[in-house]
Specification:
Layout: H1 2-7, H2 13-30, H3 38-74, H4 79-107, H5 119-143, H6 151-172, H7 183-186, H8 190-193
Length: about 200
């Protein structure tokens, strides 16, 4: 994954195509009967695991970019908030997904005491394991087409942040000098004032 990441200009390339390819594989798995084609089933699952792990790994590499992007737009560096908020959203997603599985199984007549489930229940188990996640994965991949931050624009953004910091420090002056100390409390950079 790191080797692929260094060869791509945009960090979203791997998650974008990874999610789309994973979604397609899951939709195909929905139509594969493991009892009749167990070899195909195993190969597809191995491919799915490799592709989805690569896509998710790059997602964590993209989260710090949000910190720089937010600082570039607002002048506020909120790394802790962004990390905590993303973790919170992931936990909410897991909670909704797991509870949704329970609701669907209950609605389709799943009975844990029965050794054999009905065809309707088995069909829905297959759908919530393959078809529904596959469709959502494809949608997730399509959303990444809107991620325009590539390597060139990322470093340009970092340079602009550094130049704004340098300008701000020049405006504030030497904080050890009592004459300039009041600037720390009363002067905000002009580029940040319009965003408050």
């Amino acid at each position: 994954v790191p080797l692929l990441g260094t060869r791509m200009k945009n960090k979203a390339t791997l998650p974008k195509w990874g999610f789309i390819f994973s979604g397609v594989l899951m939709v195909i798995l929905f139509f594969v009967n493991p009892l009749d084609s167990w070899g195909v089933f195993i190969v597809l699952n191995m491919l799915l695991s490799g592709v989805s792990i690569g896509a998710m790994t790059m997602m964590y590499g993209m989260m710090p970019d949000c910190t720089e992007y937010g600082e570039h737009k607002t002048g506020i560096r909120a790394a802790g908030f962004i990390s905590a908020f993303m973790t919170f959203l992931m936990k909410v997603g897991m909670a909704v997904g797991i509870s949704g599985v329970g609701f669907i199984l209950a609605a389709t007549g799943f009975d844990a005491t029965q050794p054999v489930q009905s065809d309707l229940t088995l069909g829905w188990i297959n759908a919530i394991m393959n078809l529904l996640p596959g469709i959502l994965s494809i949608i997730s991949g399509l959303i990444f087409f809107g991620y325009k931050l590539d390597r060139k624009s990322y470093y340009q953004m970092l340079n602009e942040i550094e130049s704004k910091k340098a300008w701000s420090q020049k405006k504030v002056g030497d904080m050890t000098n009592p004459v300039n100390f009041h600037w720390v409390f009363y002067v905000r950079p002009a580029w940040a004032q319009s965003n408050w």
